[in-house]
Design brief:
Blueprint: H1 3-12, E1 20-24, E2 41-45, E3 49-52, E4 75-81, H2 84-92, E5 98-101, E6 105-106, E7 112-113, H3 128-134, E8 137-141, E9 169-171, E10 175-180, E11 183-189, H4 195-200, E12 207-208
Parallel strand pairs: 1-2, 1-5, 5-8, 8-9, 11-12
Antiparallel strand pairs: 2-3, 3-4, 6-7, 9-10, 10-11
Length: about 220
């Protein structure tokens, strides 16, 4: 994973309450496990493990121990293993406090598209729909722009929505937005990033929090 992706994962950590049950989605969200202090949270994966640890180092890989994206993980002491059906029961029952997901697009209301690009093969939506509906708080961890430089935060999603429920927080390498009934509010800029850069690379309207110098 790139330095940019690692920075995004590290920027997510302050949005995870101590002791929370947290589901980390595929891609950048999985890196959050490597930045969380030990015992800071209880990480859950929908294929049936509560107590996911950091990425295994050389010689530590157990081929039978993987997360939902089929990449190797470690298990913390005291971890629990259970059927995927029980795992989705936890998610749908509201027992996952925070879900960290990736996104292809985020719209002006905080809704996301993260499972399909029109014209490309679809591997399946996975647990993202369930997590968006069932998790109490949803945090997005994504690069601010796509590989071609286009904005990922847009007025309206052109890719299929994952769910109609808006997320709560959007974290990129450049900025952090909170989502409320009024849409997106910029609440943090990464070191070295200017408000002008964010405006130039964001295609959706957003408010700027007073603590960043915006008018009240």
């Amino acid at each position: 994973m790139s330095d940019v992706q690692q920075r995004i994962a590290a920027r997510v950590v302050p949005h995870i309450p101590h002791g929370a049950v947290v589901n980390l989605g595929i891609g950048i969200p999985t890196l959050v496990a490597d930045h969380l202090p030990e015992h800071a949270a209880h990480l859950q994966t929908e294929n049936g493990l509560l107590g996911v640890g950091p990425t295994p180092g050389p010689g530590e890989v157990d081929p039978d121990l993987v997360h939902a994206g089929k990449q190797p993980v470690t298990a913390r002491p005291g971890a629990s293993y259970f059927a995927s059906s029980a795992s989705f029961g936890m998610i749908r029952g509201g027992h996952v406090e925070v879900a960290v997901l990736g996104a292809l697009q985020i719209d002006a209301r905080g809704r996301i598209a993260n499972w399909a690009i029109p014209g490309k093969p679809v591997l399946g939506v996975g647990g993202a729909m369930d997590l968006l509906v069932g998790a109490r708080t949803v945090v997005i961890a994504t690069t601010h722009t796509a590989k071609d430089g286009s904005a990922k935060i847009v007025e309206e999603c052109t890719f299929p929505l994952t769910a109609r429920r808006p997320v709560d927080v959007v974290v990129t390498e450049a900025a952090t937005f909170r989502v409320d009934d009024g849409g997106l509010e910029l609440v943090d800029l990464a070191e070295g990033v200017t408000l002008e850069w964010v405006r130039e690379h964001t295609a959706a309207p957003f408010r700027v929090a007073a603590e960043l110098g915006a008018p009240v």
